[in-house]
TrEMBL record, chain A:
Keyword Cytoplasm in annotation: yes
Domain CheW-like, first and last residues per copy: 16-156
Protein's organism: Salinicola corii
GO CC aspect terms: cytosol
Protein name (record): Chemotaxis protein CheW
Keywords tagged on the record: Chemotaxis, Cytoplasm
Automatic annotation (TrEMBL), chain B:
Region (Disordered) location: 132-155, 249-296
Histidine kinase domain residues: 291-541
Species, as recorded: Salinicola corii
Highest taxon above the source species: Bacteria
Function description: Involved in the transmission of sensory signals from the chemoreceptors to the flagellar motors. CheA is autophosphorylated; it can transfer its phosphate group to either CheB or CheY.
Annotated localization: Cytoplasm
EC number: 2.7.13.3
Gene Ontology biological process terms, A to Z: chemotaxis
Gene from which this protein is expressed: cheA
Protein name in UniProt: Chemotaxis protein CheA
Length: 166, 697
């Protein structure tokens, strides 16, 4: 597992990678900034029936229909009301555009390879399969989410399965 | 820029040329071929050969070379056309197509097939022309000269790419202005040495020593002048004779000798009195020019991007309009006027952009003459194919998807519909069957019909077959209902499974394909008079006529063509069946009721049946009453794919963007029915499973 985490982490020893840090409750997460297309507010989401709860629906992103996923619900955190701080991180993975609802975006961090620790192997609700590691930054801990794996492998297939059985 | 960048252009052009070639070959009157057509066929082969040579597609080049040789003889009347010769040409054309595909996919064409076709063509040359072209080498070979020719000046129509040795060329420019002439002479200097030049505007002669081929020179000069103004001849006499082996002087025996074969790239248009006077250079120069000026090639995704952007513009415009409609007209007069103008312009823009995607039905129809010809021959039937409305336009995505169903229908008509000539005569009909393909616009739809004047459908046989395959039928069914039976899966009345039809991929696939395109199929048939299969398709998939409805506080769209009527259910008309299921009596029909809020888990919807509105909808042959809260209105919407970034959602076919910028889902009538069925049955199970998944995750 740790080997995999290492290969998924920034591969070049010398170069550090930049991460977009966002918060869910008290926890801080980060995604590879190169996957992020834009950040926008949460608005006008049309609900879709018969899909898992964490899929909030679809929205219109300049003429393209984009699904919106709530990471809080996906990660089994408490549900909260969306407010002015609630933002949608629009990511582009595997030629798909997906919006992710998070509580807020704090900053962009540069992490050197030695600052990235392998993800621990417990994770009951948050499978370590889609974590690329833990970023340690002084007293902060960032959970590095491999957004591509999260959305393509786990998430999307889960959607497929549920729909077929429904 | 790498040469491979041009591959795609070549492939596309070659494909078009092959299509042209096939069309011309099919139109050819074998007994009295039109000279211009023969020339056009020759030109097509020649252009492909040239391109193939440039890009190094050797097999393609060699095959076209052989074909071109034969075509050249045909063109000059030395090879008498026969039906079987045309067949061979057509077969060669198919082979060329295969080779082209092979190259396109980065492979090498089938060598065996190439061997076979080249032997066939060579054999034909041998048999028909009776000349000793004992060609066994795979190199492009020179043709036997039909005549030794007077060694003087030879008129060169065509030339192969690249000529080995320098020759003296006499280039005559007719009616070229001084200014152009200077330019031309300058250009010519790049090709070789100009030994002399003289003449006036009407006729100017340049002698050039060059080892470039006439074709290349022609091609360059034709950028400046018309091909008609130019003639290039080889000076076959004098000092240059030692330098080159001017084809004009080559005789048959010389050509067949190994030495001459080594010079395989010499002119193959042999000189002599037999050669008809033709404007040299006419072919390649002219056709290239003509097509370049009138069309441009644009990748489809670029067009789609424009369409998307225009869709956005329309949405923005209607958002603005909504805002502006709240304003006072008196104080905001100019703004309101501007808004109206914007609306009109935006709609016009949308219309013209949509028309880019439109393609004429000819694209589809043009592939049938060949199919009908081959099939009719195979089945021993005599068939005349008539096409109407070739210029009717249809969206590109639809036009590509209509080909398969239409091919199936045409095959069916030929195989089952039209009778053999003797049967037709016995029935008092002309022995030649008539198959009509027609396309026409009707409202927002396009009607495509396959009409045959054959035997018509056999009601008894269809009913018997339906019974034996366990379908519920009665003798009192209306004709229309009986005809619809042939669309049932696995249904075929063909007495024998033939090569042509009856192989199981049946009419049900045709029907399904067409329904997927948002259309439907109708059949009209009269015993002894023939059958008409009518396909009704929407003009485009990108725009949908929708009925927007409300359920709870959500808005959905129903495709208007699925909506039959709407009404307010009365308590008396609602019947329940087996406890849960409810039926609505509409006139004399009992329709199952599906509540939208139930199928799609809408909260806050009207649950009282009599308070809701029942929309009677029909999809994939199923008719039911869909309960919604309110009808909002009819509108045209731009269809957006959900699967681009997400996936297929049960009960939903696509999405669209409303005037306020929000997304509304377009309901899939047939799928909604399935979804409701599943939900009722598996509601319990699904819940259980979902819980399990949640706890596992």
């Amino acid at each position: 597992m740790s080997a995999q985490a290492n290969t998924n982490a920034p591969a070049n020893d010398a170069a550090s990678s930049e991460y977009l840090v966002f918060s869910l409750g008290d926890e801080e997460y980060a995604v590879d900034i190169l996957k992020v297309q834009e950040i926008r507010g949460y608005e006008n989401v049309t609900r879709i029936a018969n899909v898992p709860e964490f899929i909030k629906g679809v929205t219109n992103l300049r003429g393209v229909i984009v699904p919106i996923i709530d990471l809080r619900l996906k990660f089994h955190l408490d549900k909260i009301e969306y407010g002015g701080q609630t933002v949608v991180i629009v990511v582009n993975v595997d030629d798909r555009i997906v919006g992710i609802v998070v509580d807020g975006v704090s900053d962009v961090m540069s992490l050197a390879p030695d600052q990235i620790k392998p993800a621990p192997e417990f994770g009951v609700t948050l499978s370590s399969d889609y974590l690329s590691g833990i970023g340690s930054l002084e007293d902060r801990m960032l959970v590095l989410v491999d957004i591509e794996k999260l959305l393509t492998h786990e998430e999307m297939q889960l959607v497929e399965r549920t729909a077929e059985s429904a | 820029m790498d040469i491979s960048d041009f591959y795609d252009t070549f492939f596309e052009e070659a494909e078009e040329l092959l299509a042209d070639m096939e069309r011309l070959l099919l139109d050819l009157d074998v007994d009295d071929p039109d000279g211009e057509d023969l020339n056009a066929i020759f030109r097509a082969a020649h252009s492909i050969k040239g391109g193939a040579g440039t890009f190094g597609f050797t097999v393609l080049q060699e095959t076209t070379h052989l074909l071109e040789n034969l075509l050249d003889h045909t063109r000059r009347g030395e090879l008498k056309l026969r039906r079987d010769i045309v067949d061979t040409f057509l077969e060669t054309k198919d082979m060329l197509h295969d080779q082209l595909d092979a190259y396109r996919n980065g492979g090498e064409p089938d060598a065996e097939a190439f061997e076979r076709i080249s032997r066939m063509l060579q054999q034909m040359a041998l048999d028909e022309l009776g000349q000793g072209e004992a060609v066994k080498t795979t190199k492009p070979d020179p043709e036997p000269a039909p005549d030794t020719g007077d060694s003087g000046q030879a008129e060169i129509d065509h030339d192969d790419v690249g000529v080995a040795a320098a020759r003296r060329l006499s280039i005559t420019l007719a009616n070229v202005s001084d200014k152009d002439r200077e330019l031309l002479v300058e250009e010519l200097q790049h090709f070789g040495t100009i030994s002399s030049q003289s003449g006036d505007v009407a006729r100017y002669r340049v002698l050039l020593d060059s080892n470039e081929s006439q074709n290349d020179i022609e091609a360059v000069l034709c950028f400046i002048i018309e091909p008609e103004q130019l003639s290039i001849e080889v000076e076959g006499t004098g000092a240059v004779e030692d330098l080159a082996a001017p084809p004009a002087a080559t005789s048959v025996s010389e050509m067949a000798s190994p030495a001459a074969q080594a010079f395989s790239e010499t002119d193959k248009d042999a000189p002599g009195g037999a050669a008809p006077p033709r404007g040299p250079g006419k072919p390649s120069g002219k056709s290239a020019k003509g097509s370049e000026s009138s069309t441009i090639r644009v990748p489809v995704d670029k067009v789609d991007q424009i369409i998307n952007l225009v869709g956005e513009l329309i949405i923005t415009q209607s958002m603005l309009e909504q805002t502006a409609s709240d304003l006072d007209i008196v104080s905001h007069g100019p703004l309101v006027n501007g808004m109206n103008l914007l609306q009109r312009n935006a709609r016009d823009l949308q219309e013209s952009v949509m028309s880019i995607r439109m393609m004429p039905m000819d694209y589809v129809f043009s592939r049938f003459p060949r199919l009908v010809r081959d099939l009719a021959a195979k089945l021993g039937k005599d068939v005349e194919l008539v096409t109407e409305g070739k210029s009717t336009e249809l969206d590109k995505s639809l036009i590509e998807r209509i080909i398969d169903p239409l091919t199936h229908l045409v095959r069916n008509s030929l195989d089952h519909g039209l009778e053999s000539p003797d049967k037709r005569e016995a029935a008092g009909k002309s022995p030649t069957g008539r198959l009509t393909l027609s396309a026409q616009h009707q409202g927002g739809n396009i009607l495509i019909e396959v009409i045959d004047d054959g035997a018509g459908l056999n009601r008894e046989r269809i009913l018997a077959k339906a019974r034996s395959s366990g379908l519920a039928v009665t003798d009192s069914m209306s004709d229309d209902d009986v005809w619809q039976l042939i669309f049932a899966p696995g249904f075929s009345t063909a007495e024998q499974v033939s090569d042509v039809s009856g192989r199981g991929v049946g009419m049900d696939v045709v029907k399904r394909n067409i329904q997927e395109m948002g259309g439907h199929v109708e059949i009209l048939s009269k015993p002894g008079r023939g059958t008409t299969t009518r396909i009704v398709l929407p003009l485009t998939l990108a725009i949908l006529d929708g009925m927007s409805i409300r359920c709870g506080n959500e808005t959905f769209l129903l495709p208007l063509n699925a909506v039959l009527e709407s009404l307010q259910p009365q308590t008396d008309d609602i019947y329940s069946m087996a406890g849960d299921d409810q039926l609505l009596k509409v006139r004399d029909e009992y329709l199952p009721i599906i509540a939208l809020h139930h199928a799609l888990d809408v909260t806050g919807a009207k649950t009282e049946l009599t308070a809701a509105i029942a929309v009677i909808v029909q999809g994939e042959g199923r008719r039911y009453a869909l309960l919604v809260d309110d009808l909002v209105g009819q509108q045209q919407v731009v269809v957006k794919n959900l699967e681009t970034n997400y996936r297929k959602v049960p009960g939903i076919s696509a999405a669209t963007i409303l005037g306020d910028g929000s997304v509304a889902l377009i309901l899939d009538i047939a799928d909604l029915h399935r979804l409701d069925r599943c939900k009722s049955q598996q509601r319990h199970e699904a819940k259980h499973q979902h819980l399990q998944e949640v706890s596992l995750a």
